[in-house]
Amino acid sequence: MRQIDRQAGLIDGAPAGYAEPGRSAGASSGSHRLSDGLKQRHVVMLSIGGSIGAGLFVGSGHAIAEAGPAAVLAYVFGSLLVVTVMRMLGEMACAMPDSGSFSTYADKAIGSWAGFTIGWMYWWFWVLVVPLEATAAAHILNGWVPDVPVWQISVLVTAALTVANLASVKNYGELEFWFAIIKVAGILLFIGCGIAAIAGLMPSVHLTPWHTLTGHGGFMPRGMAPIVGALLTTMFTFLGTEVVTIAAAESENPAREIGRAITSVVWRISLFYIGSVLVIICTVPWNDADLTGLGAYQAVLRSFHIPYARLITDGLILVAVGSCLNSALYTASRMMYSLGRREQAPRFVTRTTASGVPARAVMASSLVAFVACGANYLAPKYVFDALLSTTGAIALLVYLVIAVSQLRLRQQLVSAGPLKVRMWLHPFLGVLVVALICGAFVVMVLSEDHRGEVIATLGCCVALAAVGYLRQRRA
Q: Which segments constitute the Amino acid permease/ SLC12A domain (predicted)?
């Protein structure tokens, strides 16, 4: 198995000073070694925490308003696509656990330029998630402490979670575990209340689910095109499930933890998203202004006559965005650490503390996030919107890279030893995934609503690929 890692700069072929991640309980100050302090429950919940943010509680309302009740089809399709892609990623990750995850595998399967490109694109995505989530948290907190400006709260929230990321990974994992537990409990209660209301078990609530689904222009009131457009929103919200393969590199047995978590994590998240969306579209008409004005969860709780619906929703969103922001800083720093280890980022970011935390990578990622926060508040709105558009289609790009890498690496993985996780119906399902993703890109380019985001993302990708290719030629 170690032979297949040489070209990618893993283990046998690693740069001097590198130690295989997830193999020691700590690391001497100034070393290049990550800790192995994450337990399986941490790994699973960290992945869930990374992919359930404000997008579910608020963003789902925008997707429904765009596509009508048929938006649930975008979530179903997105779930099936993510389950398949995560299976492909799990096959590679169990054989080659690494904090760089798919970036490392792209390096090995396609070329160092590809690993460089997707690694930096992914890092850039999570760095821009920080100001988005921090702003969402700041607006909620500003309602509780109106005397403190939103931008100051945003900076304080980002600073607090930066400090949390500089602590030992075990403490960080524990914090994220409880963040995620609260989110999951809230989502399950929401779905449970929705099922009870739809079944007529809540006397004060009188719903007509079938009329809500079809009585406002039909199930597909705007046709098929908006459903494909909603897929972009769906893919954006699902991005984060792959964090399990990044976090597992800091556990005692990476291959085992990935094998246990890879499928369960995806199915759980799919249940949360699809279950929530089904409750929403059966309860609130798709053209109700409250879906986008109040947010999907609050609109549903309000229709159930739940007291303090806004306070409950705000509290849940606050925990969700805090968790997502926490995971964003963690993921960005680990990707930067992996890039540095492969000499595709400055080498100083690979230095770790005595507890095995890549503090310099954390600080560098946080610094860029603070600059993005400044752009969000101090610069004209179009500046931050332009930056954000460069990551609009990153989810589909990441999934495409994972699929291509698995197809190219499969023979080497099989020849190295028995696979702990196997991709289904190889290579046919993998080829189908690649075709569907490419088709989604084409449809989005043809759509006026999403053309700008896709072109900006692909433009940024091409620029990075050119830099990566030049670096590869010089190496």
A: 42-448
User: Residues of 251-260 as b/e, b for ≥16 C-beta within 10 angstroms?
Assistant: bbebbebbbb
| CATH architecture for the domain at 2-474 | Up-down Bundle (1.20)
pTM of the shown model: 0.86
Report the distance separating Cα 88 and Cα 91, nearest Å: 5
Q: In the predicted model, is pLDDT for residue 22 greater than 60?
A: no
The C-alpha atoms of residue 404 and residue 406 are separated, in whole angstroms, by 6
Residue ranges of domains in the chain: 2-474
Say how far apart CA 265 and CA 361 lie, in whole Å.
27
Alpha carbon distance 463, 44 (integer Å): 34
For the record, the structure tokens of 59 come out as 């963003």
DSSP conformational letter for 18 = -
Q: What is the pLDDT of residues 34-45, one digit of tens each?
A: 766 677 777 777
Q: Is the dihedral of CA 400, 403, 407, 411 positive or negative?
A: positive
The CA–CA distances, whole Å, from 396 to 85, 231, 236, 403, 436 equal: 10, 10, 8, 11, 10
At 54 the pLDDT is 67
Structure tokens of 66? 């765009």
**418 touches 91 (CB < 8 A):** no
CA 13 to chain centroid: 30
14 falls in which pLDDT band (50, 70, 90)? very low
Q: Report the b/e string of 343-375 with b at 16+ CB within 10 A.
A: ebbeeebbbbbebbbbbbbbebbbebbbebbeb
The total of other beta-carbon atoms located within 10 Å of residue 77's CB is 18
Max Cα–Cα distance, the chain, nearest Å: 72
251, β-bridge pairs:
38
Share of residues in the chain with pLDDT > 70 (%): 89
